[in-house]
Amino acid sequence: MSKIIVRGGQRLVGNVKVSGAKNAVLPILAATLLAQEGESVIADVPFLDDVNTIQQVLGALGASLSYENETMRISAQQLSSYEAPYNLVRKMRASFLVMGPLLARMGCARISLPGGCAIGTRPIDQHLKGFEAMGAEIMLGHGFIEARTSGRLKGAKIYLDVASVGATENIMMAAVLAQGTTTIENAAKEPEIVDLANYLNAMGAVVRGAGTGVIRIEGVDKLVGVHHTVIPDRVEAGTYMIAAAITGGDVHVEGAIADHLAPVISKMEEMGVEITETETGLRVRATKPLKGVDVKTLPYPGFPTDMQSQMMALLMASEGTSVVTETVFENRFMHVEEFSKMSGQIKVEGRTAIISGGVPLVGAKVCATDLRAGAALICAALIADGDTEVTGIHHVDRGYVDITGKLSSLGAIIERHEAVEQASSDKVHVLATGVEAAVSAAVGQPEAVIAAASLEPSIEKPKREKEVARLKPQPTWAVT
Ligand SMILES: CC(=O)N[C@H]1[C@@H](OP(=O)(O)OP(=O)(O)OC[C@H]2O[C@@H](n3ccc(=O)[nH]c3=O)[C@H](O)[C@@H]2O)O[C@H](CO)[C@@H](O)[C@@H]1O
Ligand SMILES: C=C(OP(=O)(O)O)C(=O)O
Q1: Centroid of ligand 2 to alpha carbon of 309 (angstroms)
Q2: How far apart are alpha carbons 164 and 152 in whole angstroms?
Q3: Does 171 share its domain with 224?
Q4: Cα 457 to ligand 2 centre (Å)
Q5: Cα 142–chain centre separation
Q6: Which residue of 57, 96, 122 sits with most ligand 1 atoms within 8 Å of its CB, as the best mutation to test the pocket?
Q7: What positions does the domain Enolpyruvate transferase occupy (predicted)?
Q8: What pLDDT was estimated at residue 419?
Q9: Domain end marker among 229, 253, 269
């Protein structure tokens, strides 16, 4: 099982460059499916597992792709399938973002249900409500969602019950080729929505109002491939800002856009962190003890839920009591249990966490329960006494480009240990201690052979097989 080991106690100093935004590039790559002519050239595409997954989804639909020097070239003139494979959708919920473009381009789309994940149930009802309003027929069954339309989709007025980022993007992508005008009310306002709208407009679409609560889309007949550069990742930037502040460091976060990070900057300044805008990013300095603050996550321009766990790490290192309220996802406090292994003093009551700050953190063996939880544990580990071993880092690989390299360039003592994998023809052999660990190492692999050595020797084979099936039903995994 791969892990990241951090030795706490180093002050971070220097420059760190932010990569292109995961949450912008995924919908933009999905939108390249809309280009009936020409090649799409997307620059600043971060080297992430999620990007690899969407690349495979596009490939399975018939697009041809190449990826070099953070630039992806996509030709989608000829699509050969309208079905996003289960193996890929199960790895990454954002695969569902191909539904809008497929419906618009091919009149049908079949995608397996993305299901829930560690941070909440994450329904897709608002996406489907939008497609239905535009005339699509939705069929659900056998773990699949199929959407079909006879002829073009029709422009419609759609009010979102929740300002969902994904639903706004999916509906926008479906509407650009629809007949007539689509209005999305209570639309999400995130910078990634604006980046997608800019890309669609460059392709020939007519999208107005992105970044506000009302987006109007005039359908056009055809879109073409164009060049686009993805915006910098505000969550990655925010994570390095927290890493700098927690270590009492002095770090320039190159590429960070102050406007995109306004709620994070405001809270960190309230705590006593000095943040200055430079020509190319943000300089973050912590020169005095920090004080606790209260934080409530909200859709943009509120405090981002994707920064909640990293902020909690900083609050543990600050003086006084802080209250964090999570309003976006119903189950995004899984990191609290891991923090407590590091001596963090946090009490959870429903959607609120009360943090007693200033208690020295200690190194421990912890597990990333989701992407941002992993980043938060690494931030906390930077000031913990001794070594912290973070497992579950396949989550971190979804959204952070070379986090160990970037942090060690700032002076952190951090290294990555890769799992021992013996690749056979097309299966990955997983060696790990314990059923949970073995299954967690096998997640994300299309086929895995979980070696007997991975599992408790006292458990005989039929029982081990049952245990693996219980933990993660996955028909292509075998126990040897
Ligand atoms: C790839 C990507 O961009 N991911 C981001 C996106 O996820 P994602 O687009 O999945 O998040 P949404 O904005 O859709 O979800 C926000 C809330 O709306 C609810 N909801 C959503 C859709 C729907 O049809 N019905 C419904 O009830 C969700 O359960 C959640 O409670 O925005 C989230 C909220 O900022 C971020 O944490 C994710 O990093
Ligand atoms: C929750 C996140 O991503 P996703 O929506 O892709 O799961 C995230 O980026 O923190």
Answers
A1: 13
A2: 24
A3: yes
A4: 36
A5: 27
A6: 122
A7: 6-407
A8: 84
A9: 229
